[in-house]
Model the fold of this input.
Amino acid sequence: MQKKTTIQSKVVLVTGANRGIGKEIVIQLLENGAGKVFAGMRNADAIPDLLEKYGNRIEAIQLDVTSKESIETAASNIPKLDILINNAGVIPMGNFTNGNALDTLDLNWNVNVRGLVAVTQAFFTKVAASDNGAIVSLSSMAGLGNMSFMGTYSASKSAVHSLMQGLRAELKEFPILVATVYPGPVDTEMTAGFEVEKASPSNVAINILKGIQEGSEEIFPDEMSGKMGPLYFSSPKELENQFSGF
Done:
């Protein structure tokens, strides 16, 4: 059953909303008629431009996805929620060759996996109560095929992929879309050192919202992921081989 999800008039929480893809998602939500957007971020003073432009349709909230207290406070201040967008993430590079696999695994896991799980758990019943809601989580193309120079990051995003498969099964009888987003390289502060062609955050955000409204369970929001993503489903080994060249 395809679960198309409307944006208009919905109450939405976006984590990691102070910059990059997260900030662009907030903008696109508001431009497409969302009723209220809660922009979660460590520093709630980081988006004065959006607060001034959109007024009471947006609220910046302090939300550290690695802090139980921060998550609980945010949940208590958001009584109703239709759409949760798990965007917060980090990209510390690490692998076995560099000898920093364990250290970077901890960093990646705490934010990209544990943080996502903690936020989703805190808002699960609120979204599940919606008559047309969604839980959308950003994985990565690197979560479908491990890129060895960022091996522990890839592993954390692979965990997101798996967790969302399980959540989709849990909510199969509910009118709730569970969607996973698999971006390729995107032009943000976090990827400033990557010497590759990158998609614009605004276009990625536009395509994420398009996927949500179409009821897509897997969203490939840029040119690179649009080409490589389907390869994972037809030939995972071929994707692994192609990514081994990075």
